[in-house]
Amino acid sequence: MLESRFGISIKTLQNFEEILAEELREIGATDINIARRIVHCRGDLELVYKANYCLRTALRVLLPVAAFNIKKADDIYDKAKKIDWTEFLDVDQTFAIDPNVQSTLYQHGHYASLKLKDAIADVFTAKFQRRPNVDSESPDMLFHLHINEDSVSISLDSSGQSLNRRGYRMSGGVSPLNEVLAAGMVMSTGWDGSVDFYDPMCGSATLALEANMIAANIPAGYLRKEFGFMNWKNFEKPLWLEVKDQADSRIKKYEGNIYAIDNDPSQLRVAASNIKAADMQDDINLGLMDFFDLMPQSEKGMLLINPPYGERIEQQDINDLYKAIGDHLKKNWSGHTCWIISSNTSAVKSVGLKPSKKISLINGTFPCTLMRFDLYSGSHKEFVISKKS
């Protein structure tokens, strides 16, 4: 089915491509090539398992199956029917097509997906007089169909569910951060665990959870039970268990402090349930507190703040909130670094601090900017958080 080393494509979020490329280098990928929201490389089956289990900024790990050009809409059926789909799929397994079609040859992606599905089914019917069933909800095999004008590529998904589904989210809360976005944000800050980490508007505590996973070397997929490659005909369970055991052997106890704070009791209950599901109750200091009552617990630290963007708040109120955030930071958090993510460029100006770095990101449907603020002046107040409470 596969050569010893083959092409692999890993999807990610905007502006995490360089971080993902570095992650891939660390697990042994070669011929790394960065594109828009995707990184291409070469590796073997072991690398596919490592990529799914370890990469924090990966959304999906794809193996290219075929690439060809078409002149008319129905060409996809003729070209796809020449592929031996029985190499990838058993007749008793289910499959689905995930189309991404941007072509004037098609009015909608469903038609292209249907043609590919028919080609796969007809290959099996010709060989076995039977065909595998389609299961759009939970297929054994998921094929990605990408068409850009006359260029067609088909890939096999090795991940199954998107890799941001870490396995700890019991409840999302209000507008929860995508886990890959959260991990990429933490990694973008350069936080290395040498100073305290504060998630002071924590919501469902995704930032704090991802920070602890990074600091403790916990693999991104540690809590997941299933990956798409487990349904492959060439799945090597001993190799998978070896990859998993090696990654798990590097897990350590993070000795620093991570604080997750929110002033909304309902949000804090969501955070508590997620932290419990991740078995990190002893690793994250969770507290019901308003950000403006929060004081630093040491001389240095890093704050990563995800405040409201103002989609349901009057502009003047959101400006006042951001001004209050800036005032609190300037008065009480000298010696610390603060990162703020927001889509509200007007409100960010009210912080009253000049960012030393900006990174463009997408949070759901919101184009956002992650900004770094270095805090040089102010005075410390007495500590108000009890450790590991």
Structure write-up:
The chain is α/β, with parallel strands linked by helices. The chain has 2 domains: 6-157, VC0802-like (2-Layer Sandwich); 179-218 and 251-374, Vaccinia Virus protein VP39 (Rossmann fold), CATH 3.40.50. Helix content is 30%, strand content 24%. It contains 10 helices and 15 strands. The chain has helices at residues 17-26, 45-54, 75-80, 109-128, 179-189, 206-215, 237-248, 265-277, 315-332, 345-349; strands at residues 6-11, 30-35, 38-43, 60-69, 94-102, 133-134, 141-148, 151-157, 196-199, 258-262, 285-288, 301-305, 337-342, 357-363, 366-374. Strands 2-3-1-4-8-7-5-6 form an 8-stranded mixed beta sheet. It has a 7-stranded mixed beta sheet with strand order 11-10-9-12-13-15-14, with helices on one face. Residues 378-389 have low confidence and may be disordered.
Oligomer status: single chain
Strand order within the widest beta sheet: 2-3-1-4-8-7-5-6
Could you name the ranges where pLDDT drops below 50 across 5 or more consecutive residues? 378-389
Reported for the largest beta sheet, the result is: 8 strands, mixed
Estimated helix fraction: 25-40%
> What would you call the shape?
elongated
Number of helices: 10
> Averaged pLDDT, please?
93
Please name the fourth-level CATH homologous superfamily of the largest domain: Vaccinia Virus protein VP39
Question: Helices and strands: which structural class?
Answer: alpha/beta
CA distance, first residue to last residue: 53 Å
Q: Give the DSSP E fraction (strand runs of 2 or more residues).
A: 15-25%
CATH architecture of the largest domain: 3-Layer(aba) Sandwich
* H-E string: EHEEHEHEHEEEHEHHEHEEHEHEE
